[in-house]
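Q: Here's a chain of 314 amino acids. Please give me its 3D structure as tokens.
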Amino acid sequence: MNQVTPKQQLKAKRYLYFVLALSILWIVMFIQSQAEWVQNIKESIGLVPILQAKENSFYNQRIDPIFEKYCVSCHDGNKDKGHLRLDSYRQLTFSGRSEADLTVAENNLLVERMKLPADDRLAMPPYGRERHSEAELELIKLWLAKGGSGELTEDDFPEAPAKAKVIKFADINWQHIEQLREPLQPQVSALQNQFPSSVSYLARTSHLLSVNLSHSAMPITDQQLTAFQPVAELIAELNLNRSGITDASAQALIEMTELQSLNISQTQATAQLLEQVMNLPNLKTVFADSKIVDQVLLEKFTQQGIRLHVVERG
């Protein structure tokens, strides 16, 4: 059996050290080439803060919504086509097969793909999908031109177009509206037959009523107004212009607790009636003849938060 000489042992050790050093160098170089790994290591030992966009950043407010609308359906944690994720600022920094930092403006592959014609096979979003506008693409380019920051806010982009206002319409609960209308529906229908074209709902979405008696063939009297007593709690608008009502109608009006707008111009009503209706809880607007309104009454209505419109008789 051949004996291993000390010289051979030394040579073997040197070779082993060389291979070990080469392996360590390769591992270090490999890790350095993995930008995300380097970031994770630095974060874990506290050398750098966690990479994420601030809540009030321009990225979160203006750029991320564009990616969310057009890109994330194909590029998020569930479906990362091309190993690209655009569902967060962090992923935008390290994602994609190219492993390019997509927050850098120069040679930005994402922008180049978004600039392609819609029918180009490399275009993003792909053909057939909803496509971003030129204004949205320019907004991304503006953000990149200032460093693709996750910290700069909208105040740092005064040249950016104003953010479009999003108008949200509340869901309408039609069943609930019908339930509110149902108890007095027969009485409302009867009044609509008795006073054609004078009684309607305030809106399709409301159970409250708008009553306009100013165009009746015969002026409405105090007695006729009492016909509305069964639905008094539903009347929000009441127009009695040119009607025959007097102060005797005050009690009927006081029962209209939802009344918001009242017109008693060119009637026989006096300031006494105005004094009585002034405390209605929801009243906001009143129209009355100038001859029955003085400065004291105007001030009283103002104190109640009610707009009293003075009407000159024609």
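Q: Can you summarize the key feature?
A: The mean pLDDT is 85.
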